[in-house]
């Protein structure tokens, strides 16, 4: 695999029910930036059935979108997806190939990389490219306690899965023009069948939340999660949890943050009664803002926090709830007063 | 359950297990900035214990045999003994200088050569990821190299027969039910079961058990030696560092809880969250 004939950056567009996953727009943002830096094109490959968002991919930076529209691609079947992508990469020879580090990307990426006999860097949180087009990939390892810089010096394409909500979304520009190229999917593989897919009802995944308020073993009993929930509701955020209270079934597994739960990167993470184990930190340390509430001043969570409140959560949180309501009340009071004057 | 004693074919499960440093023991040396693993206690990757337990449960149902394979230094032999103590029947250690420095492509290639050398198998089970390399890529890469179907993030086995498997696979906010034709590979999550501790008598037995050790030359008839280890690895770790420049933490310790609550609301307002 000599590297000279490989050109351009290609992004895998993940979709569900025809709707493109937002990580795709983040990959397009980074992909566009890198393609411009090396003066090459940005490609996007979209697989599914009856998709309508092709123009959006172009508005978000793709020069060319390869579209595989076939009923056999509606649901994620790793063997079908792999076949299409491997064929396309062999035809188009991109220098760089990016996927979201989602449960789909992390199943598909390695399979494609192994078929192409190239390197794949997992779950990157930072990407850059040098003038020669060598990808510089940074990723957490050892449960987030180290950051590793990884290169793929010789093999092409250089492949990476990229963590969701780490890169900036591409800017949307409806004046952008690009090309949509219809490809035919030829799929005969019957070794995997998707029998059913189910999405949990109600609240969305905490991975998508901008604000997360989490509770841990500092809570004395399951009912006390109510305080955490009330703070979360006031801030229009989601409820997160450390593992012990999930193991004790105080709250569902989908709320767990950490190594064996969800990796989250909200704008604000408030940890209440959570000590800050390596495994918990692995799931939340990249949050934009971290506020920790813990009665033990030596709790490790404070090292990762921007603001650390040393206090009993049973004292602080009720006061916090009251204070937020008071200020909101004042604001509504002001507004009503003003509107009355008019 | 039959043990394949008669003519019928045995159901063969292979479990992939890796030895990792105990999570808390990994430090960055502040002077050299390099990863210091020397002090770390070596343990079986915790996620692989779930994989072993899945294999044991399947053996209870279908009979047959569980073989565990690990690639690593000679001391990884203790991880295979741990697997035997937990109920596996056979342990194979892949150990050779030529295997060293492998990335996930070379690791999965080497493992798939060993699996081909074993010959017949019906199912391969591995952990979701390891606590050191932490990529979760080895499983699906092994599946590709063996040209068999796979499913990642398996949180439940719904049904299994000699020829097919139905699993529930986790997604971000739900799940998928997949049917896979065997032979296949699955990587399982921590939620799939709760692995029991091995019994003392099994631990003692495992201490004396035989662990087969295969070197690169044992695999040279099946695989290309150039594809093992560092030479077979397209990726290079060029640097490891601390995750962060130490965050400046603003500590709020004094004052009543009422005062602290006011302070907290001020902060939330300043940051635009209210
Ligand atoms: C392989 C593996 C995977 C794991 N994965 C995860 C994971 O995904 N997520 C996860 O969270 N953990 C995970 N763990 C578990 C992890 O090691 C810790 O045990 C766990 O994170 C601790 O949870 P905690 O902080 O809630 O509890 P603790 O460590 O017990 O901390 C409770 C904290 O609450 C404080 N506190 C007590 N009372 C109050 C009060 N009234 N007001 C204020 N503060 C108070 C205490 O000072 C203490 O710091 C994993 C472990 C392993 C081995
Ligand atoms: C800091 C750091 C970062 C790295 N980043 C990357 C990277 O981004 N891309 C890359 O290709 N390589 C990377 N590597 C190399 C990688 O860690 C090794 O190839 C390792 O041997 C296997 O990968 P893993 O630990 O991530 O396993 P995972 O893919 O996380 O393991 C999944 C499962 O596969 C099985 N398994 C894994 N390894 C073995 C083994 N040796 N023997 C038996 N079964 C096994 C186990 O069942 C395990 O639960 C990195 C290494 C380091 C030190």
Explain what this protein looks like in three dimensions:
The complex is a heterodimer of chains A (342) and B (274). Chain A is an alpha/beta fold. Chain A folds into 2 domains: 3-183, HUPs (Rossmann fold, 3-Layer(aba) Sandwich), CATH 3.40.50.620; 206-341, TPP-binding domain (Rossmann fold, 3-Layer(aba) Sandwich), CATH 3.40.50.1220. Helices cover 30% and strands 27% of the residues of chain A. Chain A is built from 9 helices and 18 strands. Chain A has a 7-stranded parallel β-sheet, with helices on both faces. In chain A, strand 16 (268-272), helix 7 (278-284) and strand 17 form a beta-alpha-beta unit. The radius of gyration of chain A is 23 Å and the shape is elongated. Chain B is α/β, with parallel strands linked by helices. Chain B has a single domain, classed as Rossmann fold (3-Layer(aba) Sandwich). Chain B is built from 7 helices and 15 strands. Chain B has helices at 46-62, 77-85, 104-118, 138-146, 200-208, 216-219, 257-270, and strands at 12-16, 19-21, 27-28, 35-36, 42-44, 65-71, 90-94, 123-127, 150-160, 164-171, 174-181, 184-188, 212-214, 236-241, 250-252. In chain B, the strands form 3 sheets. In chain B, strands 11-10-9-12-8-1-6-7-13 form a 9-stranded mixed β-sheet, sandwiched between helices. In chain B, strands 2-5 form a two-stranded antiparallel sheet. Chains A and B meet through helix 3, helix 4, strand 7, strand 10 and strand 13 of A and helix 3, helix 4, strand 9, strand 10 and strand 11 of B. Strand 18 of chain A pairs parallel with strand 15 (250-252) of chain B, so a sheet runs across the interface. Bound molecules: flavin-adenine dinucleotide (2 copies).
């Amino acid at each position: 695999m000599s590297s000279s004939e490989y050109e351009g950056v290609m992004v895998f567009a993940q979709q569900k029910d025809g709707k493109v996953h937002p990580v795709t727009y983040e990959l397009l943002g980074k992909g566009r930036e890198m393609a411009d830096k090396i003066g090459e094109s940005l490609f996007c490959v979209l697989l599914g059935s009856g998709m309508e968002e092709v123009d959006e991919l172009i508005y978000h930076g793709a020069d060319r979108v390869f579209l595989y529209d076939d009923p056999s691609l509606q649901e994620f079947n790793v063997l079908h997806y792999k076949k299409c992508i491997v064929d396309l990469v062999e035809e188009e020879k991109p220098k760089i190939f990016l996927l979201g580090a989602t449960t789909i990307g992390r199943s598909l990426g390695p399979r494609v990389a192994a078929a192409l006999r190239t390197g794949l860097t997992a779950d990157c949180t930072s990407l850059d490219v040098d003038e020669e087009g060598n990808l510089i990939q940074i990723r957490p390892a050892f449960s987030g306690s180290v950051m590793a810089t990884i290169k793929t010096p010789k093999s092409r394409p250089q492949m990476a899965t990229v963590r969701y909500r780490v890169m900036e979304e591409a800017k949307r520009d409806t004046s952008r023009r690009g090309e949509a190229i219809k490809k035919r999917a030829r799929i005969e593989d019957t070794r995997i069948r998707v029998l059913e897919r189910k999405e949990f009802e109600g609240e969305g995944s905490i991975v998508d939340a901008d604000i997360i308020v989490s509770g841990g073993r500092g809570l004395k009993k399951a009912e006390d999660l109510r305080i955490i929930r009330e703070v979360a509701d006031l801030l229009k955020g989601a409820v997160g949890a450390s593992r012990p209270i999930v193991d004790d079934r105080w709250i569902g597994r989908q709320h767990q943050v950490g190594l064996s739960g969800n990796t989250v990167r909200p704008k604000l993470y408030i940890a209440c009664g959570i000590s800050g184990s390596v495994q918990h930190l692995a799931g939340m340390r990249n949050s934009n803002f971290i506020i920790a509430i813990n009665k033990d001043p030596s709790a490790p969570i404070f090292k990762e926090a921007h603001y650390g409140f040393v206090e009993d959560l049973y004292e602080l949180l009720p006061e916090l709830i009251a204070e937020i309501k008071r200020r909101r009340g004042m604001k509504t009071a002001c507004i009503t007063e003003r509107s009355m004057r008019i | 359950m039959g043990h394949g004693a008669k003519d019928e074919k045995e159901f063969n499960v292979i479990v992939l297990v890796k030895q990792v440093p105990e999570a808390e023991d990994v430090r960055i040396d502040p002077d050299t900035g390099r990863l210091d693993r020397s002090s770390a206690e070596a343990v079986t990757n915790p996620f692989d214990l779930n994989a072993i337990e899945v294999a044991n449960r399947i053996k209870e149902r279908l009979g047959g045999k569980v073989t565990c394979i690990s690639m690593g230094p000679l001391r990884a032999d203790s991880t295979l003994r741990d697997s035997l103590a937990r109920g596996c029947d056979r342990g194979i250690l892949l150990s050779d200088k030529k295997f060293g420095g492998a990335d996930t492509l070379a690791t999965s290639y080497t493992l798939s050569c060993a699996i081909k050398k074993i010959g017949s198998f019906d199912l391969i089970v591995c952990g979701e990821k390891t606590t050191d390399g932490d990529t979760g890529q080895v499983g699906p890469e092994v599946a590709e190299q063996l040209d068999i179907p796979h499913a990642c993030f398996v949180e439940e086995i719904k049904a299994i027969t000699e020829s097919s498997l139905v699993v529930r696979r986790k997604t971000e906010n739900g799940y998928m039910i997949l049917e896979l034709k065997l032979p296949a590979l699955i990587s399982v999550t921590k939620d799939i079961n709760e692995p029991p501790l091995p019994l003392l008598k099994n631990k003692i037995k495992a201490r004396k058990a035989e662990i087969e050790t295969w070197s690169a030359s044992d695999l040279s008839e099946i695989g290309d030696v150039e594809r093992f280890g560092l030479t077979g690895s397209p990726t290079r770790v060029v640097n490891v560092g601390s995750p962060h420049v130490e965050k400046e933490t603003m500590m709020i310790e004094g004052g009543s809880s009422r005062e602290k609550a006011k302070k907290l609301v001020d902060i939330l307002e300043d940051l635009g969250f209210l």
